[in-house]
Amino acid sequence: MKFIEEVVVEEFLPTFRSMLAEDLRARGLTQSEVASALGISQSAVSKYAHGEVARNDRIETDDRVRALVERVGEGLASGDMTPVQALVESEVLVRRLERGDILADLHEGAMPALAAVDHARIHDPDSAVRATERVRSSVRRGVRTLTNASGFSTLIPNVGSNLVECLPEATGVEDVAAVPGRIFDVKGQATVPGDPEFGVSEYVASVLLAAREHTDARAAANIRYDPDLVDALADAGYTCLAFEPDGDSEVEGVRSVLADAPELTDVFVLYQTGGYGIEPITYLLGPDAPTVADCVRDLL
């Protein structure tokens, strides 16, 4: 009796790890960094690098495996992908290959009686873990775009900026990933307190959730209000709509202006010009965090 997990351990894992270690080394990571990223020893990395680990030809030449190695390698090397997301993405492919695919065939080779058996689905490709990690990764990429943009700190309002993105079926702020504590201007430098987390944004997340009642927006960023900036955004072709804040809340104003809004552009702009005790703010909303961040960067 041989479990399919044994096929994964004996055939897939050595091949995949060897390919990924090779990819990361080619991207300039040290042997120690590769070991840390993959959670293996440096001696194991050395064996992979020197071809001392046998690879399964069928797995190694599969386009999906090669694409995953490239995607995970790029994500780990750039910091856009956490080890958790890398694991989830890899697990999803493994489970797919177990269902009437390469791993199922290898399993059937070891257990011919399994030829007529449909391998049970163990991991859901649309799992919540995968979705949350992808959103966090998206916010991470967008934040890097902003902080790498020369002059971004000049767009940060007194209350700080944030970049948020929500899950596809978001219903509350706990479904929205954002920078904890917001992005602040510290002596001309945009400062990010920590890695994106869910449930750490109140104001920008609330604006996004209110906008989603009338739009398909999944991400938002706030910057300081300046009529010249709004004019620049309008000149760039984005729909720009003014709304009135209601006391300390902007939610009702957002709902109201979008309820009667004309057809919106893919990225659109909402802004309020302030009031007593209320700082004027501009919001850019769009399909994902990197897209919104690109629009902010283009203002500089």
What does this structure look like?
- With 300 residues, the protein is of the alpha+beta class.
- The chain is 47% helix and 12% strand.
- The strands form two sheets. It has a seven-stranded mixed beta sheet with strand order 5-2-1-6-9-8-7, with helices on both faces. Strands 3-4 form a two-stranded antiparallel sheet.
- Helix 1 crosses helix 5, helix 1 packs across helix 7 and helix 8 runs parallel beside helix 12.
- The radius of gyration is 24 Å and the shape is elongated.
- About 2% of the residues have low confidence.
In brief:
Residues 20-48 form the HTH cro/C1-type domain. The chain is α+β, with helices and mostly antiparallel strands and 300 residues long. The protein is 47% helix and 12% strand.
* CATH architecture classification of the largest domain: 3-Layer(aba) Sandwich
- Percent helix among the residues? 40-55%
- Which of globular, elongated, flat, extended, rod-shaped describes the shape? elongated
**Major sheet: arrangement of strands:** 5-2-1-6-9-8-7
From the 3D structure, determine the CATH topology of the largest domain: L-fuculose-1-phosphate Aldolase
- Rg measurement, Å: 24 Å
CATH homologous superfamily placement of the largest domain: Class II aldolase/adducin N-terminal domain
Count of alpha and pi helical runs? 12
- Major sheet description: 7 strands, mixed
Q: Uncertain regions: pLDDT < 50 for 5+ in a row?
A: 117-123
Judged by helices, strands and strand pairing, the structural class is alpha+beta
CATH class of the largest domain: Alpha Beta
Give the SSE order as H and E letters: HHHHHHHHEEEEEHEHEHEEH
Mean pLDDT across the residues is 91
Count of individual beta strands: 9
Tell me the quaternary state.
single chain
